[in-house]
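Quick entry, no commentary yet.
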Amino acid sequence: MHIPDAKTFRNFADLARAHVRGRDFAISVKRRPSSPVAVIAPHGGEIEDGTSELARAIAGEEFNLYSFEGTRAARNYRALHLTSHLFDEPECLSLIAQCGFVVAIHGCAGDEPAVFLGGLDVTLRDLLADALARARVAAASSGHRFPAVHPNNVCNRGARGKGVQIEITRPLRYAAAAAPLVAAVRSVLFRVPA
């Protein structure tokens, strides 16, 4: 059976024509209208494993949450990884349009625990980098391959036109190893202006 390669998709509409919600992917949205923060996992489930769980942990009960999750039996990354500057899923865009602060959680390759911060919200990015450093989580905010500065990157499509992308290697995406990262990010998000 031929699996359409997500690299050929121009937008979410292309993905939705090739795959079926409820079979190949799931979408979850939790709105917290009193919060200006949205935590999103556009490549969750089995696309970039561990990212949905991290987004949920960071959002807790306080922050808005969005997750697009691959649920196929296999090849989720190849079939469903719509690159961030093409990710225009309507429920996600509707949620983040109401939020001044958007933090996108992603998974990247790497055997060493590391975090790579990007996005157009340089102030929030730097606050997160400082908090992660204090938590002894290795974090780079420049000089890496995940700058996330394209204006159409989903992290930059919130109410203020800028946000933060957090790329996290596999060793930091699970359970106890993720706890300091989650706590550091939450500590910063609690301080953003309403």
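second:
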Amino acid sequence: MILGYTTGVFDLFHHGHVNLLKNAKALCDKLIVGVSTDELVRYKGKTPIIPHEHRMTVVQSCRYVDLTIPQENIDKLEAYKKLKFNVLFVGSDWYQDDKWINYENNLETFGVKVRYIPYTKSVSSTLINNILTEKRK
């Protein structure tokens, strides 16, 4: 059985999120999704629109997701030690990023592959939020 793992904020859930989850699920038997906690999102300098518990419910309702868990920190190696996944999925917008190259190298020692899923360029939660902010003005 291939156990897959991916993470995200999943604020203002949109078709780009669905594309990521659908493509990831096609490459594994079971997909676990870590949904960033509100505290982690704020640590990254952003403020989520949708509260964590609601984002967890939305992501869990997606048919491609087998299990959602809170993502309380961004350390993928620590997540591996807890979950023992075989493959880690991330958007292709992170390809060749130094942080992700480091994750690839570290996880490779445990036989874990990092797979880059095509990023949906036409949409993002930030873009949606910016459009909504403009409409409120």
